[in-house]
Amino acid sequence: MPGSTRTPTLADVAAAAGVSLSTASLAFSGNKPVSASTRERVLAAAGSLGYTGPNPLARNLRQGRSGVVGIAVGPLSTAFRDPAALPMLDAVSEVLEAAGMGLLLMGDSVEHARLPLDAVIYQICGQETWAAYDDLVARDVPLVVVEGPAWPGATFIDIDHRAGAAAVAHHLHDLGHRRVATLTLQESHPQREREAGLREVFPDAVTIGRCVSDLAATQEMVSAFLDGEPDVTAVVCQSDVQAAGVVLEARRRGIDVPGGLSVAGFDGIDTPWLDLDLTTVVQPFAEKGRATARAALARTNDEPADDVVLPVELRLGASTGPTVSR
C-alpha cells in the first residue's frame, strides 16, 4: 500500500500473497503446518507492505488472556526502597519476560486487581487480609502468595524462616549469650515464624518492639530501648536493615559491636556502606523470584503448581562474638 497512511492489516497481507486470511494467520502463528513456500510468500508480502505481525495483546484478549501478570507489592515507594524485595522482583520479571509475559506492579488497591490480568502475585505486603482476594477468587484469577497468608486456592511460595532464625539463636547460644533482645517486623507470617525460631532457643528473649525495615525508624526504637540500659548482650533483628540500624545506634553511643553488643540480622542483603559484615540468614532471593514466576505461569496455563518452601543459610559475619559483661 505505497503512499497510504493506513496501517496495513493481516487481511491486506493475505490479499497480497493470494492466500486466505486464516492461512496468513497460521503463517505468522506457527500453530499449524503451513508449507515453507506459502509461509515465505506471506512473509514477503508482509515485508513489502510494512506489516510486522499480529498484535500480541489483541491476540491474547481474543483468547481470554492479557499476557500480563500483576504483582501486589504494597506501597510502591516502600517496595522500591526495600533491598530485600528488589532482587526477587528482578527474578520474577526475568522469567516472565522470557515467557513473553508482562509484569504489572500494583499497590494494594482493589481497582488494580480488577484489571484484566492472567494471574496475580501477592508479594510481602505484610497484611493478613486483602480486599481484592474475594474479587480475584470470584473471577477465577490464579493467585500466587509469597511469604504471606496461605489463602485457599493460592499457591504459596515461602522460605524456611523458622529454621533460619533458630540457626542464628543457636549460634549466639554457642557464643555464650543468654540475655538476648529481639527487634521484629510488623505482624505478618515472616514475623511470626522468625520469632518462633528465635524462641526455640531463647524463650525469654526481650522484645524491643515491631518496626519496618527502615534505618531511621530502627535507630529511634533502639535508642529508646538502650536508654533503659537493658541487661542484654545480643540483639537479633528480623531484617538486615534493622540490624544495620542497631549497629549504627550502638556505635553512636560508643558501644562496640560485637565487643559490647552482638547484632544479627536476616535476609543476606549487601551492606557495603556499613563497613561491617553482618551475621545474618541468607535467603535465596533469585530462586524465590523464579519459583514465584514459574508458579504464576503454570497457574495461568491451568497446570499444577505446588507450594514451595526454600531453604536458607546462616552466614557468620563480624557483628557477633562471644558474650561479654556490659
Overview of this protein structure:
The protein is of the alpha/beta class and 326 residues long. It has three domains: 45 residues, no CATH class; 119 residues, 3-Layer(aba) Sandwich (Rossmann fold); 123 residues, 3-Layer(aba) Sandwich (Rossmann fold), CATH 3.40.50.2300. It contains 13 helices and twelve strands. The longest helix has 16 residues. It is elongated and about 85 Å long.
Which structural traits does this protein have?
alpha/beta; DNA-binding transcription factor activity; 3 domains; Rossmann fold; Peripla_BP_I; transcription regulation; Lambda_DNA-bd_dom_sf; DNA-binding
Q: Quick gist of this model?
A:
The protein is α/β, with parallel strands linked by helices.
CATH topology of the largest domain: Rossmann fold
Low-confidence residue ranges: 56-63
Number of strands: 12
The biggest beta sheet reads: 6 strands, parallel
Give the strand line-up of the largest sheet: 2-1-3-4-5-11
General shape:
elongated
Structural category? alpha/beta
* CATH domain class name of the largest domain: Alpha Beta
CATH superfamily of the largest domain: Response regulator
CA-CA gap between termini? 85 Å
Q: Which whole number gives the mean pLDDT?
A: 86
Could you tell me the radius of gyration in angstroms? 26 Å
Number of helices: 13
User: In sequence order, what are the helices and strands, one letter per element?
Assistant: HHHHEHHEHEHEEHEHEHEHEEHEE
Q: What is the domain tally? A: 3
Give me the CATH architecture of the largest domain, please.
Answer: 3-Layer(aba) Sandwich
Helix percentage range: 40-55%
- Content of β-strand: 15-25%
